[in-house]
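Protocol step 4 of 6: structure prediction from sequence.
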Amino acid sequence: MSSITRRRALGVAAGAAGAVTVLTRTGQAATAAPRAAADDPASFDEVYQGRRIRGGPAHGGGHHGGHHGGGYTVTVDGRELHVMRNADGTWISVVHHYEPVATPRELARAAVRELRGAPLVPLALG
């Protein structure tokens, strides 16, 4: 007579739970990759509170040209604002670091507000 023991039932349940976890994570990874490509931010060029802010794909001329900013450059009055894209798709900068925003345009505007008329000083790494 074959009877199912508690140990065997728990083993089967744990194996099934592990398989579901793997399948769920695999599905999330497959759907996350196309979403990231679709979320590339648009370029912008405007005057905000008297300051010229621009943003767009980096062409190798920027300080990081694709390192943290994922190939995106933001400038305030022609000076590069060091930007970083977080894993969740939000953006931060050295001027506006603790409140992530959804787009580089919002980030540039927040930096202008934080600067309060002061010039943007280049980030010295090294």
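Step 5 (inspection) to follow. The two ends are 74 Å apart (CA to CA).
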